[in-house]
Structure formats: C-alpha cells, structure tokens
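lol so apparently i was supposed to do this last week
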Amino acid sequence: MARRALRKIDPSLELGRWLRTFDDLPAPWQPEAIFGRQARLEVEVGTGKGLFLVAAAANAPDRDFLGMEVSNKYARYAAARLAKRGLTNACVMHGDALRVFRERLPDACLAAIHVYFPDPWWKARHKKRRVLNAGFLADVERTLSPDGRLHFWTDVQEYFRSTLDLIKRVTRLEGPLEVAEHPAQHDLDYRTHFERRTRLSGEPVYRAEFARTRPMGYAFVTKETSMPPISSLVARDIMRSNLVTATPGQSLADLRHLLIGSHVSGAPVVDRGKLVGIVSRSDLVRVEELVEALDAEVSEEVWLENQADGFKHPAPQEFGGFHRRLSELKVKDAMREQVMTCSPDTPVAEVAAEMVRHHVHRIVVVEGDHPLGIVSTLDIAALVAQEQNGPR
Ligand SMILES: C[S@@+](CC[C@H](N)C(=O)[O-])C[C@H]1O[C@@H](n2cnc3c(N)ncnc32)[C@H](O)[C@@H]1O
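anyway here it is w/ S-adenosylmethionine bound
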C-alpha cells in the first residue's frame, strides 16, 4: 500500500509545548519539568505520525506520554496533532530514542515502553541498526518500573521471532504475554498508522507484551516474617532461584548487557540444562583487557590456531590482532569451568566456610548437574546484618 504524503501542518499552531529536542529534556531526569506534574509515564519509541500517542493521551488523562521520533518531519506532524487536540499529557521528543534511554532515563522510571513497527532494516549488514538490539533491551529492563510493560508489535515475522529470542536471552522480562487482535470499529481504530496499513492490506501483525518481574531481594531480608537463626538455615533457604544464566555460545556483548541489565555480577553458564561453568564481570574485564593489550601484528594463521585452541592458553606475543575479534568472542572464551557447587541441603555456615576457604564470591546450588540457584557472599552478609539489626 502506498504511503500517503503528510498533510500540511497548520502554521498558526504553537508547537513549543509539544515538540522537544534531546537538549530540552531535564537532566537529571525530572518528568515534572516536562508535564508539570508527577504521573505514571509511558514512552513510545518511533512515534511516526502519532496515532498511538494522540489516542493514548486522550484515553488516559491521568498518565503522561513521551513520544520519541528521529525524523523531524514526523516528530513535527505528531506534535501538531497533540497541539490541535490540546493534549497536555503528551509531547514528542525529536531525536534518537536510544540516546534518551542511555543518557537520560534513570532506573525504574517508566510504567510502559511502546515499540510499534520499528524499521526492519532487512539487509543482514544493516540489522545492527535495529532499535530492538541487546543494548537497548538492557535499558528497557533497567528503566521499567516493577510490573512495567514492554509492548512490541511488528509486521515482520523474522524481526518478531529474533527479538523474542533476544529478549529471552538477554533479559529477565516475563513473556511473551498474549495480545489479542480487536476488530476495528472505525477507520482510525488501530494502534498505529502502520498497524492500519498492515491490516488493511490483509497482512498479519505480530504482537507481544513483556512484564518486568519484581526486583530480586535477599530471601529473608525482604520477608517480613521473623527469621530463624542462621545456624538452622540451609542453602535452599537463602539461594536466589530466579537465576540469570548464560550459554557458552552467547556473545560477550550479549553477556555484558545481560549482567548489567540484570544487576548481577556473575552468572552460571548452562548448556542444555547442565552447569558447565561460571562467568563474572571480572572475567569479561580480564578478556577485554587481554584483547586490548595484545594488538601487535600476528598472522591470520596463528590467530586461527589459537582460536581452535579455545583461547585457553593465550601466549601474549602470538595474540596480536586478537582485538579485531573481540566482537566474535563468546562466553566460552571467558568463563571458568571450575565452579564451586553445593547441594540445596548444605548448611549456610558450611557454604560460608567453603567460600572463605576457596576465596570465591558465589556458589551454585545444584541438584545433579542442574543448577537450582546461587548463593553469593552478599547474600550471607545480608543474613548476618539482618540477624544483628532485624529486617530493613
Ligand atoms: C516504520 S515507522 C513506524 C511508526 C509508528 N510506530 C507506526 O507504527 O505507525 C518507524 C519509525 O521509527 C522512527 N525511528 C527509527 N529509529 C528511531 C530512533 N532511534 N529513535 C526514534 N525514532 C526512531 C522512524 O523515523 C519511523 O518514524
């Protein structure tokens, strides 16, 4: 279906209040400076002509909506539609949405993030330009408030599937939750202009919704019940069971986003349900520093030989040029295969003693080869603090 030219914007409309730039956004973040009040805030990435923004703002006057649109022409158009309706609970930021997430939005500040029909960037070499990439998803998870939602709709099945897969790998968002399609009651009864176009041409729309799960807490510290003495507790009682895990074939870039986005310092590496190693932020730094330090010249042949060896025994003089391959390195290149484990019934005092004896910061709780949870030195410190001072 052909794209219709944009209608002319009424020149008498004063857009100032509805059209912002990146530099107009408050730093540090303070949405009251934009909307003049404190309310639940939702953002839309890639607002286009603004159908969603206008309808959502009109239907939910108790919420605020910030649209983000990189094209000046569309940002102005959407802002003009808001201005025409006098909708003071919405505005459009003309600029790169990903930059706003990276540089402005603090943790847990958004009730919902809407991404409808993002540009598909079909060619393989252009796919890295897609907005739903691992870095942005880490920011999505970080900026959503507890129970906040990510809405993602597209007409591109491959983008849909690969994004769902990426969300599963690099975030702990819960989903995909089912989203029903509603029959349109009138000509503009669609979520966005692209949904309208797609459905009117009889093509399918793929819809998904994800929820941020509540933040992790220390098992007993967050419970309000009185805590039994530490001497009676076992690993199962204090382990974190909502495990963030990595896979050996995952890229180090994905791993970095996973660890940062999930606010954890390390993750067990699991291959087909079996624990095969452990990887931490310090392992990442170790590999990155090694790669950056070794940039002398080296032949492709030597590099490939070392790669075949799994980078297990790096000989610095032979590893020049390694840095060029940083983007190709995988979790298996950085992980440690020796993992301290314990059974769920191990007394906490014994777990702590093992950590001290072996100088490790975390122990994976396993049943056979299967990881059930993780206990870190911080979990034990939190228990001791609680026993001393009571629940916080
Ligand atoms: C295919 S259109 C979809 C528009 C609208 N969501 C809809 O469904 O009708 C994608 C929009 O995202 C905008 N866009 C792409 N990358 C962006 C970015 N990094 N930040 C803000 N907007 C972006 C494009 O300019 C374009 O208007």
